[in-house]
């Protein structure tokens, strides 16, 4: 199998690609550039292209298909940045991966704790030497009811790690997990909205899940609710979120992902207009923490992403069943 890797990060991914391509005897080459129409020909002669989060549209897929590319492998859990339906219609495979769920789970809980203790506001005040206590009174996580929407690997791990904090945990998923039932109580989505002090999202970006947190959902939530999103930006209607923050309905938002983040995160945009006014609004609030899609970013997770993107591509090219082929 021959793999061409785009968006290579020399400072963390390159050693892992060198190690795992050698281990699995994969012929490979790479570029630090993100895929675009001007550099797709770099993958000529390869079987698989390996990407991260760049939007892959029909024109790009057509070009790779003409070149004989058989599979698009994304070293991410999500694959909504690829027009996978179109790729599949041309007979091309699309695969995604899994990685250590503890990376995102622990980051999620960190955001919960920062929201409970108003850490962003405390740090902003401390930066200008305001050491007063006014407006900084926190709450304890153990006294909260936490709602986890989505109980796949990451959601389940969040629940498992939350157990030690002593909080009440409610869960919602269209497919209930027996192991989760031992740690949390499955309830309806309406009950999550009505009863939870903290709501955390761990579902994929599907058509059904688009803007699952919208004005109607926020209206049903408790006053001062905390909303955490370390999954995908499209799960939340940003305009509705901003309105909820302005009204006081939402007491804290911890966002590792936002809408229209493609082309923004993982690039140095210092001094540039970002063309994302909603991001500027969100960043202005003392009770909103916006992080640049880094919940996944641990040494173990990066190694997992590289290795699994190679292994899943090998399985696909050899005609083996893999649960990570996008059907």
Detailed description of the structure:
The chain is α/β, with parallel strands linked by helices and 327 residues long. It folds into 2 domains: 2-99 and 298-317, NAD(P)-binding Rossmann-like Domain (Rossmann fold, 3-Layer(aba) Sandwich); 101-290, NAD(P)-binding Rossmann-like Domain (Rossmann fold, 3-Layer(aba) Sandwich), CATH 3.40.50.720. It is built from 12 helices and 12 strands. It has a 7-stranded parallel beta sheet with strand order 8-7-6-9-10-11-12, with helices on both faces. The mean pLDDT is 97.
Fold blueprint:
Blueprint: E1 2-5, H1 13-23, E2 27-30, E3 48-51, H2 58-67, E4 71-74, H3 84-89, E5 93-95, H4 101-116, H5 119-127, E6 145-149, H6 153-162, E7 168-172, H7 178-181, E8 185-186, H8 189-195, E9 198-201, H9 215-219, E10 225-229, H10 238-247, E11 250-255, H11 277-284, E12 288-290, H12 299-317
Parallel strand pairs: 1-2, 1-3, 3-4, 4-5, 6-7, 6-9, 7-8, 9-10, 10-11, 11-12
Helix pairs in contact: 1-12, 4-6
